Amino acid sequence: MISSLPPYRLIPPPLAAGFLLFIICIASLLLGAGDVTPADALPVLFGGGSDEARFIVLELRMPRTLVALVVGAALGCAGALMQTLSRNPLAEPGLLGISAGSSFAVAVMLMLGASAATLTVYVSQLGALAGCLIVLSAARIQGVGNDPIRLVLAGATLTGLLLSMTSLLLMFDQRSADEIRFWVTGSVAGRDLDDLYHLLPSLAVAIILMLIVIRPLAALSLGERAAQGLGHKPGRIRLITVLVVALLVGAATAMAGPIIFVGLVVPFIARAIAGPDIRRTLWLCLPIGPIILIVADILSRLLVSPAELPLGVLTAIIGAPVLLLVVRGKRMPAL
Amino acid sequence: MSLKSLIPSLRQMTGALALGLIASQTLAEEVQLDTRYGSVTVDDSAERVITLYEGALDAAVALGVKPVGAITTRQGDSVASYIQPSVEGISIVGTARETNLESVIALQPDLILASSRLSEEQYELLSAVAPTIVPSVNVFQQEGAWKEESKLFAKALGREEEMDKVLDDIAERATGLKDRLDASMPDTGRNASLARWMPQGALLMSNKLFASNVLASLGFEMQTAGIIDENRAHSSPLSLEKLSLIDGDWLFLATLNEDGREAVEAASKSPAFQRLEVVKNDRVVPVDGQLFSSTSGPMAANAILDRLEMVIEQTEQ
């Protein structure tokens, strides 16, 4: 199923995935919980349509599609980087306590009275970074590469601890409880595009760092000695990668709440298509992440109309079977 | 199992307590009450009353009885703020979901007034402590069920006539306010929605709710848009695309917090909310969420009427 060489394909997989993403974005603009049907919404894409349809498509569906696009791409890439770094197919921001770290940081800030979107982004990224460092240092005590279970256990422990601390905060402050509780289940609905613009600087930094680190990271996956032999410094590579993951997950969490399993499923699919080399899988994660998240968001609108399902619930429903597949697989995909 | 085995001994204890009380109060009369769990006999001069239902606390206070213990209001740390001044220092014995049996016993009640939703299991435990009154009315199937509940609680407290007077006064006041509203705004429609603004979307509240009943007594026609399941207090959080379901001539908007203005502020940030006709016509009324979505009873009815009187005064200017 997963070979070290990319299999020959008629259309390059990134191109095919990009095309699929485009189709799904259009579907996301056409489908929704409201009374505006795809037939009503279609003219809007060409500049026409009724006033009601224009509002629903441009003011409600477009922003959430863009947010899901960015969040999905960020989570997919963060998952791929984290898995390569830890050489563990189970390393996922949601499972490793990174999302929980950033949720906790945001919950604290919301309780202290903060609500400005700008503030939450940086707070959430700091929380993610702290979560990353704690879990990596906990797992490093015995060496990451030899013991993937240790990393996951440390992550699960940290997640549990942070989640219960977040719940504790909710008990003390009923006023912000609603806001936090909603945010914890994850959603891309009703987000302001302005919030998205606030993320762009840190995402740009993350992308630049990612471009710098991707080649050394691929070398590192050959082993620490091989990487050193090629002139890379493993310690520095790890640090930069963790920073990138924290920036990406923090941004995604600030925008849509702690959405789990996307960071697990996306690299898994990408590896199945393109093989284990991070230089290939990472570019494939860019379209696959948004595809999964936007499909989940479309389902969240359609399944229980006129209400909506929390996005985090749907990604968990989609992601859990994949997690089981990974765990029950005869051998873990080599990283 | 251990709790069950406790019951006989509790019964004996409270039996002894009741005997002592009857001996000391010769004026007490026994009253027969029809409750959800059968006929219950109470002594109508109970002095230590515990209310495990906001509607019961309200009814008791309206009749001049100050309960020794009560439950918190939904999402609150204590009783609802409209009734707080009347019951300073009251002991909290739990929430609507969960009663702390130990604190109930510690208060040594001689009467417990509970919600119609009290489970049989809980009833067995509580009635071993003191006579427990559980209304048999279904709040979601009976128009004005809160009045029946208030009357039942009044009977248990031996003050039926006072309650009749209180309820008549409320009906009269509502009619007066309705006439004033009709006089000042004869041309405006009366379609109205009661909604709670939550971060995950607006909840449309049932037209069977207590606050909806009070609003209806002023001539408001409470909308449900066909999206509220039977026996449920409110709809699921609405998608922003479906927000027009809460549109109408009037919108009473609350959060679970007391401050309705905060809810309106949060809602106003949403472009979908701005598009509602009721917002463009400026007929959104911010209301206290505790009062309008958690409580019931005559005191709450008067507090709601106070709020509506303020609205009518504004329209009269």
What does this structure look like?
The complex is a heterodimer of chains A (335) and B (317). Helices cover 75% and strands 0% of the residues of chain A. The two termini of chain A are 14 Å apart. Chain A has a domain at 77-274: ABC transporter involved in vitamin B12 uptake, BtuC, CATH 1.10.3470.10. By secondary structure, chain A is mostly helical. Chain B is an alpha/beta fold and 317 residues long. Chain B contains twelve helices and twelve strands. The longest helix of chain B has 25 residues, at 160-184. In chain B, 46% of the residues are buried. The A-B interface holds A 32-36, 55-56, 59-61, 174-175, 177-179, 181-183, 185, 187, 189-190, 192, 301, 304-308, 310 and B 75-77, 198-201, 227, 235-242, 245, 255-257, 269-272, 275. Chain A: It holds the Pfam family FecCD. Chain A: The chain crosses the membrane at residues 65-82, 94-113, 119-139, 151-172, 196-214, 235-252, 281-303, 309-327. Chain A: Its main location: membrane.
Termini distance of chain A? 14 Å
Helices of chain B, by number, come to: 12
The counted number of beta strands of chain A is 0
- What amount of the residues of chain A lies in strands? under 5%
Indicate the radius of gyration of chain B in whole angstroms: 21 Å
Radius of gyration of chain A: 20 Å
Q: pLDDT average of chain B, as an integer?
A: 86
CATH superfamily of the domain at 77-274 in chain A: ABC transporter involved in vitamin B12 uptake, BtuC
Organism (chain A): Marinobacterium mangrovicola
Main location (chain A): membrane
Keywords (chain A): Cell membrane, Membrane, Transmembrane, Transmembrane helix, Transport
Membrane topology (chain A): Multi-pass membrane protein
